[in-house]
Design a protein that fits this description.
0% strand
Length: 112
């Protein structure tokens, strides 16, 4: 378990009337988007691109809230507020973000 818990996919299931084929397809799309967003967040942190991070989070927040990951939203917003990130903290922050997002991604993959 990561420090933000695991996503709740009940809303996604309900959105697709609990039809397994439909909600699993939606989870596949979410999985692919999660990978892209994770890579974009990593790049934004690496380059201290606050504008890119703002844009990424703007799109990602709705998804995180649907998955009941509000505390993750707050944490990522907190990271954004630290830009430019001190060089000696950047690797640690990138690793923390990578671990959290990959843990949640693995959980989503197991739901497919």
């Amino acid at each position: 378990m990561n420090k933000f818990g695991y996503p709740t996919i009940s809303q996604i299931k309900a959105d697709y009337d609990f039809e397994q084929n439909k909600y699993k397809h939606a989870l596949n799309i979410l999985f692919d988007e999660w990978v892209l967003i994770s890579n974009k967040i990593d790049a934004a942190i690496a380059t201290d691109d606050q504008s890119a991070m703002e844009s990424i989070l703007h799109k990602f927040i709705t998804t995180l809230r649907r998955l009941d990951l509000e505390s993750l939203v707050v944490w990522l917003e907190g990271i954004k507020s630290q830009f430019p990130i001190q060089k000696n903290k950047k690797a640690e922050i990138k690793l923390d973000v990578k671990i959290v997002l990959e843990t949640i991604l693995q959980f989503l993959k197991n739901q497919i």
